[in-house]
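Internal tracking record. Fields below are filled automatically when a chain is submitted to the structure queue. Please do not edit lines marked as system-generated. If the sequence contains nonstandard residues, flag them in the REMARKS field before resubmitting.
Queue: standard
Priority: normal
Entity type: single polypeptide chain
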Amino acid sequence: MFISTAWAQGAGGAGGGGLMQTIIMMALIFGVFYFLMIRPQQKKVKAHREMIGALSRGDKIVTAGGVFGKVTKVVNDLEVIVEITEGVRVRVVRGTITEVVSKTQPANDTAKK
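SYSTEM-GENERATED OUTPUT FOLLOWS
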């Protein structure tokens, strides 16, 4: 009584427009994901890689486990020796270092001052 009868609509225009809209929407969604998720993550990884590569003796660091320490020796590209407290040294994988708290000055800079 209060509901009117729904009639089917006639055939629309060209059928190829739906495919083009789908392709444009997929490209738009990929663009949004790239600029909001992928690109910032790549920048963060690049900055971490540079920080790890610039580690040197005397740098104060924080590991992923939350341990503070001082780099006493750079063994190779994969690991460093960190002094946690006097006389306690541990071998740490470079990738687990999350932050450099304080960077030491190179010997050349201190001699010039």
